[in-house]
């Protein structure tokens, strides 16, 4: 599309930008349209003014959002300005002609302008701007404190009353660090000799490998980009400071909202912990396919190996299976809907304490940091060395002749620690390295476990200087498991914030066609994004927040080389992703079945988070959206839903498969020994390994966390006992005082819940 040259145009006056912001706030929070008593409306208006001011301050300090506000104030600065100029639409003409742009328009023209942005001549570029504005305004407006007043919910406790004091009294006590910083050489060293292993990343893969190598008496340094929160001081689930890109991340077209942990414990610290056993049929089908195609070394992934490794995971992480009495009304909606559809719902395993049993009143998660990293770092004889707030930028190498090389360590940049609440463990090794300092850390072996995004970033950065590892496969074939939430509105109380937030799932369609249903919940700030239509429509639904229920349909997507992770001009990761036609068709079927299940469970109305014309209506307006009132509407959804970016809300929290494992460098980045391929020689880099979700050849078939833990245990055993040494270990349990050997059984069938 053609764009106007805006380089030399003056920026709008800050007062005009403020007026634009106020007008946008009013579009998405039209208080005068809310059916509230006058005295209540006055109180809400006072709260809204404070929220509006805080949002303006945040938006104008965020370059991307500020640029959009500038463009909405001075339309000449919009990249699609030339496409708007010929329009005869009254709202567009008013927008282009009004002094101050959006803020200077008549109020009754503002909402129609959004309608044009979503499906007018400047789309998809204008639709992206419209959706970004919709997302940031609604999520800010419907956060606390407005949500409490308008939805009649009790705000959940996210922090201990004084997290700083709690952290001081509950922080783990570590022995003196064996690391020290050589400031002259800008190098981190170990007092006892060479470092055996550097592990980059502390999620389920990195924490497991670091823990096992520590248990094998190795000198191990674990490096984590994000902060280390003192367990129990806060509810860490999806807290922005602990998430990739501050929890503002999306694919390059803004079509899918991305959720990924960037903190000690990685995703295990921030997610809900829906723990799919790697022995579930949907996962085993994928693993069996990988073995048959030679993409992984089948000798190490026998049923006995996986059972034994997963048993270790359950015992160490304290995974437990839920019981029927723990289901709240929200979870029962999916359960009842599935049964009435004729498929069997299931109860989750969770890496969480039973309700009421957690030693912290605000956190119940058994994450990798608590279960694996803290015990290893607390060892007085050979403590695991941990460095939080440190971004690994690249791998360092030395040549070994004949075009081969070996890793010698990593270069890393110290990050400013997150200390907003005084509840993080800062510099536990006492290195005292200033933030933004670039240093090195040398080791005999390096293991990348930074998750799909983090590991890909390190590999791409490293490839710039080292053609030996510049594999064109790095970042390609990205899997996201895109998920669409569905909301049901009932004529009875649901109170989805009471009890367990997620307890049920349906995987009857997990192998074929390839989608899974999972109970989901969320606060009003998340729910607001799911309600299509204008600000009044959002209010009407959220005002009945306690009679709403939700579950999501997650697609088991297929890899495509066009879906990939790259680095932008500033060296930041960019995720490009488009659903294939076949994946769209399967996804449509999954959404339509989900709509049917919601109606079968008793919903009066079902909300699909899309402002596409789902019902095929004439004169459809995306700022009104579609309202599903009948189970037969599912047929129209299956026919008309096209998953248009910035018209339909999709989320993704299972980022996988960008650095695939395989038998040769022409089809894979990582060898079946989990070493990085040298593309110049066709050999492996002998001491550079990867162990995280990025190595999966395809989707793992379900929520991947338990599989990552399990595969990391298998990999750690290979490192310790010999990378090619086969050690089949069947599961042994006690039965009536005798030890019984059990092969090929799901551990949940033979092991009691770890909580007792």
Architecture overview:
The chain is of the alpha+beta class. Helices cover 33% and strands 16% of the residues. The protein is built from 21 helices and 26 strands. It has a 6-stranded mixed β-sheet with strand order 10-4-3-14-24-23. A 6-stranded antiparallel β-sheet has the order 8-16-17-18-15-21, with helices on one face. The longest helix is centred in the first third of the chain and has 23 residues, at 38-60. The radius of gyration is 26 Å and the shape is globular. The N and C termini lie far apart (63 Å). Mean pLDDT is 93; it is low at 1-7 and 730-756.
Question: Summary?
Answer:
This protein is of the alpha+beta class and 756 residues long. Residues 1-7 and 730-756 have low confidence and may be disordered.
